[in-house]
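Q: Structure tokens for this one, please.
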Amino acid sequence: MTLAIFDLDNTLLAGDSDHAWGEFLVEEGIVDAEAYRKANDRFYQEYLNGEMDILNYLGFALQPLSIHSMEELLDWRARFTDKKVRPMLQKKASVLLNSHRQRGHTLMIITATNRFVTEPIADILGIEHLIATEPEMVNGHYTGEVAGIPSFQEGKVTRLNDWLEAHNERLDGAWFYSDSHNDLPLLEKVDNPVAVDPDSKLEAFARNKGWNVMTLRD
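A: Here is the predicted structure, written as tokens:
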């Protein structure tokens, strides 16, 4: 099996679903607008700078899941997906995904964004395998805590290795597409690393290494 692995935000999507979910909560009046938007923007900038404390961020990002019913959350997520995510879909991303399907590759998304937000996006893209940060759930309710290791930076490598072991698979010949220097730990592990619409740090690193650099933006 040859894996074709994709980061999600700003790679397959022309935008960041995690940040957009925060914006949606603000716009719908679900959270305190001023305070939540300020924190959401600050954490996003820390991510872009490579300075994010992932557990600190997740304490913020997962808290709304813990204080609302699953019925409310699922209704909001459906509206969020239509309003915020579908406009981020890219035709060139679909072409790329199909090119790997035609070669018989196994497609996977690996993302730091939590599963609650990203699972329907993986479904829309037709990608069966999703490694995402897992919000803890107890008795059918989210606790606001993280279950296991967040799939962020080195955590993506750890989570992928766990998946490979569980499925008795190897990383030989794998592809990984990402926009972010935060993903360098995994990009350096695969045989075919690809920088997609990369940030400046990743672009410089990729060009120095002779990696493929491409765009999926329409």
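A few notes: The radius of gyration is 17 Å. Residues 3-14+89-214 form a domain with the Rossmann fold fold (CATH 3.40.50.1000).
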